[in-house]
Design brief:
There is one protein chain. Helices cover about 20% and strands about 40% of the residues. A 5-stranded mixed β-barrel has the order 3-4-5-9-8. With about 200 residues, the chain is α+β, with helices and mostly antiparallel strands.
């Protein structure tokens, strides 16, 4: 529980956002300063997540919402769950991410997971009292791409912001997962799930 609390505090610290109005010279959301988070290990990512799923994004809706950091645009994306690796979210789950477009106003949050409609991903999800969010923001989102050989592999989330190194021997989850085949990634997650039982 202590790991989960510290991880979420680190990963959600100071996400940068930018609003764009119709009177702005920009035609869409512009680049904001990078969010800062600390690299986390696969073990922390798994143990801090309520659910780990392979899912395809479908419907999404953006709206204004009051958050701990003030009123901002959030986007809810419906995920059609193909496979649940950790937890039991059901066949569909709505996930909230920061940023989106409402009317003529867009807001973009660097470091947040960017989930595109129709995209298949491996996602680490955390259930809060008000919504399901991506654990550790972009560090918990891995789009599945198909290589020329037809092999599904994991890619990084489009914008991870600034990820700071950490002290200690832990290897970052992104180092383990990005470029790995989906099947190898699922094996690695299963190994993390078994580890606490094996230590008992």
């Amino acid at each position: 529980m202590r790991v989960r609390a510290s991880l979420l505090a680190l990963s959600l610290a100071l996400p940068a956002a930018l609003l764009v109005s119709p009177h702005s010279p920009h035609t869409g959301p512009s680049e904001a300063q990078a969010a800062v988070s600390v690299v986390i290990s696969l073990d922390e990512l798994v143990t801090s997540s309520s659910y780990v799923v392979v899912a395809k994004a479908s419907e999404r809706q953006s709206m204004w919402e009051d958050t701990p950091n003030g009123r901002r645009i959030v986007t809810y994306t419906r995920l059609d769950v193909e496979r649940s690796v950790v937890g039991e979210p059901g066949t569909q789950v709505w996930v909230r991410t920061l940023g989106g477009v409402v009317g003529d106003v867009g807001q973009w949050v660097s470091g947040e997971a960017v989930i595109h409609p129709g995209e298949r991903s491996l996602l680490f999800l955390h259930k809060t009292p008000t919504a399901v969010v991506v654990t550790a923001m972009a560090q918990g989102h891995y789009p599945v791409i198909t290589t020329e050989g037809g092999l599904p592999k994991l890619a990084p989330s489009p914008d991870a912001g600034t990820i700071l190194p950490r002290t200690g021997p832990s290897i970052g989850a992104r180092e383990v997962l990005v470029g790995a085949t989906l099947s190898r990634a699922l094996v690695a997650i299963e190994e993390v799930k078994r580890a606490p039982r094996e230590r008992k």
